[in-house]
Amino acid sequence: MKIPLKIFFKNNRFKAAVPTVFFFFLAGMLFFSACKKDILNTSPDFKLTFSNDSIIFDTVFTSLGSATHRLMVYNPGTSKVKISDIRLEKGNASDFRINVDGVATYDKQDVEIRGGDSIFIFARVTIDPNNAANPFVVEDRLLFNINGNQQSVKLVAWGKNARYILADHHAPGFPSYIIVADSLENVQWTNKKPIVIYGYAVINSYGSLNIAAGTKIYFHKSSGLWVYANGKLTVSGTREHPVVFQGDRLETDYAELPGQWDRIWIMEGPAGSDNVIKNAVIKNGFIGIQAESFFKKNQNKLSLENVIIENMNGAGILSRDYTIDGQNLVVANCGGYCLALTGGGNYHFIQSTLANYWPYSIRNNPAVILTNFLKDTNNQPVPLPMHFTLGNSIIYGYNDNEFGTGMVAGADSSYYLDHCLVKSRLKMDNTAYFNQILKNEDPKFMDIEKQDYRIDTLSPAIGRGDPAISVSAPFDLLGNPRGQVPDLGAYQFVPGQSKKLK
User: Per-residue pLDDT tens for 26-70?
Assistant: First the structure.
């Protein structure tokens, strides 16, 4: 007999059974859920997630001290995972220590996290900022080995008493950066403390940065200085106290090692707002100076006086349709070019030494290249006016041809080398382009291995300059007078000069 539904629900025994059934159903669900969380996830594709991908201890110590930061490690899955190893990459040699499950260590094994759960890890660093052996930036990595894979979190702390400039903008498609001189700001950097840049330091549009004599600026890996469109940079070194731009590794092995940081990047600006770099050393990066018209034709110029650029992986100076004046300029040992002046522009250099004895790999490029075009989206050349002059200067290096041009028709372009020593396979008898050229004569630099590009006693460059050119640079890079018998290059020969460059 079929029982009507409403009568069936009036049965008290069934009513009593409902909560009991529900209880066992809920208990079963919880049981199976707990079992699922206790099942070990061994998938090689599993990834932990972290509260941060880097831990930066941005405390600047002035005496021996410590700082601690917290990291949360999440298991985003529903099953338990076992981290076979949590350790500091540098082991017990690290300046950092970690605390996992209340134990201070540098290596913790077999740490379990249930599904959907997390754990805390405390990282601690102890720094003596007055320890001369410390680098400016102390780094390590916290490594997590799980299911045969490795993940990491970077640990970064400041190792010396210095001024640290840390990138705080992270936009897709751009390098990480921080604005150090905002619009209408006039900012001064002094030599009171070394300046360490982590990321890109940006001079914003209509902002200006002035760097005082003797200031030492250290760039971390991939870092640089960026003069954005309409920004302004003034570097005011002296011969006795130059401004130095270099990488932040202070170990002996890094003293002359290229590629430790990125570049000084200068964009276009308005008329009368010239960028000036005077009495400076720029070394050991990827590109020394990149100057380019990016959004529109530049109306200002870059002025370089008494500047040394050396040990660059890419180029010493890379330009695109810019205006640059230079005197007493040394650009040396670059993996690509000393000067790559491309896409047109106006360039006037005197009393300069462009020497490329790059020792790290085969270099097929000339030390100096000039082009008067840029490529369009169809890879076709677009001609732009180019004017280049070089006077009382030296272009030399290991290659047979250290001077090259790539010119196309359709733009007013010219170049003129006047009283120069040049290593080249080109014919240099056309007086429209060349005047008083010493071709393929060894300049006899003092010591190319020590990057001493003064000329020696028997150099053919002695006395071969034009005083009408040197009058604009009456003193050499070291402050020696050129007089009425100037030499070629950035250095004037001085009888009895020291065997060691100052």
Answer: 555 544 455 555 789 999 999 999 999 999 998 888 888 899 999
Torsional class of 256: left (φ above 0), alpha (ψ -120 to 50), beta (otherwise): alpha
Q: Write down the pLDDT at residue 37.
A: 52
Instruction: Give residue 213's identity as a one-letter amino acid code.
Output: A
Burial 313-340 (b: 16+ CB within 10 A, else e): bbbbbbbbbbbbbbbbbbbbbbbbbbbb
Q: How many Å apart are CA 129 and CA 164, to the nearest integer?
A: 13
230 in Cβ contact with 256 (< 8 Å): no
- The pLDDT-based confidence of 15 (bands split at 50, 70, 90) is very low
Residue 225 near residue 200, CB atoms below 8 Å: yes
Q: Give the separation between CA 118 and CA 120, rounded to whole angstroms.
A: 7
Average pLDDT on 402-423 reads 97
Q: Based on the domain organization, do 218 and 251 belong to the same domain?
A: yes
Q: What is the pTM of this model?
A: 0.87
Higher pLDDT, 502 or 280: 280
Any long-range contacts for 98-104 (C-beta under 8 Å, 24+ apart)? Answer: 98/122, 98/123, 98/124, 98/142, 99/123, 99/124
Q: What is the pLDDT of residues 87-108, one digit of tens each?
A: 999 999 999 999 997 888 899 9
Please indicate, yes or no, whether residues 151 and 186 belong to a single structural domain of this protein: no
Co-location of 229 and 125 in the same domain: no
491 domain-assigned: no
H or E segment to which residue 468 belongs: helix 467-470
Classify residue 441: in a domain, yes or no: yes
Domain that holds residue 343: 163-470
**Separation CA 106–CA 103 (nearest Å):** 10
Average pLDDT, the chain: 92
Let me know how long the chain is: 502
The mean pLDDT value for 323-350 works out to: 98
pLDDT reading at 21 higher than 70:
no
Q: Beta-carbon neighbour count of residue 129 at 10 Å?
A: 17
Are residues 458 and 346 located together in one domain of the fold?
yes
Domain harbouring 97, CATH code: 2.60.40.2310
* Of 276, 289, 266, nearest in space to 210 by CA: 276
The verdict on 140 and 204 lying in the same domain is no
- Distance between CA 260 and CA 374 in Å, rounded? 29
